[in-house]
Design a protein that fits this description.
- The protein is an alpha+beta fold and 618 residues long.
- It folds into five domains: 150 residues, Beta-Lactamase; 136 residues, Rossmann fold; 104 residues, PAS domain (Beta-Lactamase); 103 residues, PAS domain (Beta-Lactamase); 44 residues.
- It is 49% helix and 24% strand.
- The longest helix has 48 residues.
- The termini are far apart.
Length: 618
């Protein structure tokens, strides 16, 4: 969105415009003028006309003759003369009085006094009045007119040189003053709009116009956008956006347009566009349009480009300050929104500031806490320790850490964990203490401790073997029955695998089962496993393996339980053996009943009974 110029800005321009146009006019007079303008004053018209005719034949003179000294003086005040020729004897005003009035305004303008008298008093008065040349009239004007012409030519040359120098000095002072005033306004500017407005006012003042604009490049879109305008119509807005603006952006050089439409032409200018550059980056363009076409002196163009560069530096400063201010606001919001207590303490241990969380938790107001010694917030039993920690930190630096509870306004202990470090608060060296309330954490730790104790009791009282493995099937822990079985201690178990405790085939079967639990993420229950202990004795176990998970549900390992069932397996095998023997006896009996001759079948029956009993027949 573009901003329009303020009423205050228009007042500044109105106050300076008359001075500026005067200086601008003087600049145009810097070009060398061959024609010498002379104002001649004589109350005898015939002599004045004769003087004009003679003088114009003797040199490149433009002579205006007046019979009234007052009328002539008005023309002189309008700066329409390079030299004055005046008669002494005139009824309205004598020549010396006229010279005094002229010299009071233009001390260096050449003045020639014509008199028919060689009276010494007149000559002295003329010299005292500042008259440059006194010419005695005689009856042969053709003799003294050439001398007057020569004297005026030489004097005007010197007068013009001094006048040019003085005008140049005034112009330089005006330019320096404009730069100084702009620098003062830019240094006071805290927003981009203020800086743009101040610079555009100065550009308009230097160019002597009322219309201008500033376009800035949008950092996000990289497009040129109108930022501020002074008296800019919709048509001119279109022209600035789609005209030579992009040429300035591409070349990073100013463009000045003339009435011919050609940029940088030496003819009368109609306006210009100057890039705003910081370092090597172009960030915008400042534009102006003259109210009427006219010449702009190079010194003015150079000054406009210089102040535009000053604007670029100011915009960088303002953007940096705005970024810092934004970060400060964000930090302030964070400071106020923090759930932790933040206490700022000076080097004497006095509280300087506390955030809203601190006042809410402790029950004090900020005014009550400010100026309070920090040890007041702790129990008298530990106040000396707090002072010692504080002194140690201020001497050696580093970080302070403790879990001493704070005391609220109502005398209630508030469990907190406090960390402190040195820093700066404004221009003061301070200690920042951040205290996190840990009531819930302590309660959770107590509950967790109780849970661990319960788990330990279960593990210790269980006759089953219990162990845990991670995803890589490395042992994490095992209870006493399991450790006794593999003859290992708790410390040595960590990081071991089944291959470290079981024969190769057994270890491979156990790992295959474990991998199935992990990959399928499903438990296995009542799995009978045949295992040999450290002494080589065969043992039987019934095992269950259940996957474990983290908070996201990902598998982290497994828990295994094994209950020894060797006696049960042996009893089951004995029953199965006896069942086989009974079955074999029944078969033999039926065979003998159906056979009339036993002798041939006796060996087979004995072999069958031996197989059933697990005894080899010989």
């Amino acid at each position: 969105m573009a901003f329009e110029v303020s009423e205050r800005s228009e007042e500044i321009i109105a106050r300076n415009v008359s001075t500026h146009f005067s200086c601008l006019k003087k600049i145009t007079l810097h070009q060398e003028e061959l024609m010498i303008k002379i104002i001649a004053v004589d109350d005898e018209p015939s002599f004045g006309e004769m003087l004009r005719v003679y003088m114009e034949e003797l040199g490149d003179f433009d002579i205006s003759v007046y019979s009234s000294p007052n009328e002539a003086f008005e023309k002189i005040l309008a700066e329409e003369a390079d030299a004055i020729i005046t008669d002494y004897y005139m009824e309205e005003m004598d020549g010396i009085s006229l010279a005094i009035k002229v010299k009071s305004y233009f001390p260096d303008i050449p003045v020639v006094l014509l008199t028919a008298s060689d009276d010494i008093d007149i000559i002295l008065k003329a010299n005292n009045a500042g008259v440059d040349f006194i010419q005695i009239k005689d009856d042969n004007p053709s003799e003294f007119f050439p001398e007057i012409a020569l004297k005026i030519t030489n004097s005007v040359k010197n007068y013009r040189a001094k006048k040019k120098y003085e005008e140049g000095r005034q112009i330089r002072e005006m330019l320096i003053r404009a730069q100084r005033d702009l620098m003062a306004r830019l240094s006071e500017s805290s927003t981009t709009k203020q800086a743009l407005d101040a610079t555009l006012i100065t550009i308009r003042f230097l160019a002597g116009c009322t219309t201008g604009a500033v376009h800035l490049i949008n950092k996000k879109t990289r497009k040129i956008e109108l930022a501020i305008s002074h008296n800019l119509s919709d048509e001119l807005i279109k022209r600035f956006i789609f005209g030579d603006l992009h040429r300035v952006i591409y070349t990073k050089k100013p463009v000045y347009l003339s009435v011919t439409g050609k940029p940088d032409n030496t003819e009368d200018f109609i306006g210009g566009q100057i890039p705003i550059i910081t370092g090597t980056d172009l960030i915008g363009v400042i534009s102006f349009i003259l109210d009427n076409p006219g010449k702009i002196h190079q010194e003015l163009l150079d000054t406009m480009e210089l102040v535009t560069g000053q604007l670029g530096n100011t915009l960088v400063r303002i953007r940096s300050e705005e970024l810092v201010h934004q970060r400060e606001n964000e930090l302030s919001e964070l400071y106020n929104a923090m759930l932790e207590l933040v206490i700022v303490i000076d080097m004497d241990g006095t509280i300087l500031n506390i955030n809203p969380a601190g006042t809410r938790i402790l029950g004090y107001t900020e005014e009550e806490l400010t100026g309070m010694p920090i040890q007041t917030l702790y129990s008298p039993k530990i106040s000396d320790e707090i002072i010692f920690q504080f002194m140690n930190l201020t001497d050696s630096g580093g970080i302070m850490h403790n879990t001493y509870p704070l005391i609220s306004r109502h005398g209630v202990e508030i469990p907190v964990e406090t960390r402190g470090s040195l820093g700066t608060w404004g221009d003061r060296k301070v200690l920042f203490c951040v205290s996190r309330e840990i009531t819930e954490r302590l309660e959770a730790e107590r509950s967790l401790h109780e849970y661990y104790e319960q788990i330990k009791a279960i593990l210790a009282s269980s006759t089953a073997q219990i162990y845990m493995k991670n995803r890589d099937l490395l042992y994490l822990m095992g209870n006493e029955p399991f450790l006794s079985f593999i003859k290992c201690d708790t410390k040595s178990l960590l990081g071991k695998t089944d291959h470290d405790f079981f024969p190769g085939p057994v270890a491979e079967i156990r790992e295959e089962t474990d991998k199935k639990v992990l990959t399928e993420n499903k438990p296995i229950y009542n799995l009978e496993e045949e295992v040999f202990d450290a002494d080589g004795n065969k043992k039987w176990f019934v095992s269950s393996k259940i996957p474990t998970h983290d908070q996201s549900g990902a598998v982290t390992g497994l828990v295994g339980t094994s209950l020894e069932i060797t006696d049960l397996i042996q009893a089951r095998e004995e029953l199965e053996r006896k069942d086989r023997i009974l079955s074999a006896v029944s078969t033999v009996a039926q065979t003998l009943v159906r056979s009339n001759e036993w002798e041939p079948i006796i060996p087979g029956c004995l072999e069958l009974l031996g197989q059933a009993a697990g005894v080899e027949h010989s």
